[in-house]
TrEMBL record:
EC numbers, comma separated: 2.1.1.-, 3.4.23.43
Pfam families associated with the record: Peptidase_A24 (PF01478)
KW Hydrolase (keyword) present: yes
Annotated keywords: Hydrolase, Membrane, Methyltransferase, Transferase, Transmembrane, Transmembrane helix
Domain Prepilin type IV endopeptidase peptidase stretches: 14-118
GO biological process terms held by the UniProt record: methylation
The keyword Cell cycle appears for this protein: no
Protein name per Swiss-Prot or TrEMBL: Leader peptidase (Prepilin peptidase)/N-methyltransferase
Amino acid sequence: MVHVVLIGGGLWGLICCGCLWRWDAREHRLPNRWTGLLALGGFVTAGVVCLLAGTVSALIGAVLGAAGYALSMGVLRLLSRGQLGMGDVKLAVGLGAYTGLWGLGVTAVAALLGVVLGGLAALGAVVLGRARIDSSLPYGPPMMLGAFGALVLAAT
């Protein structure tokens, strides 16, 4: 039964991420409604897993993953003087909840992959002439890819 909950929660997360990706790619913003629904899905999934498994470890991991990822993105937002949007910080809550469900190491890998993929996307856009060094680029899609990649690595 836990697997069914994880699959359902994962599908919810994919739907939310698909909508968020589309918004960020088109408008360079992440709507609160969708970042909130993503976070809610992660916490509900963790809570139901805990009820079915009779342990609180999944919920603790989701809370710590969400808090740690959001805190690190908040610090990056401050250091970047607003170049990193608040939507990206809110996105980190949901991604951290989903990845934290599998362990804090998975959340750390997700964050690292997001930074690497975001940097590669920015470099590629500059090299291809689609952006300048001072251009604003959406960071949500690399964050989502990083989380997805970390979850795939954790499952293998």
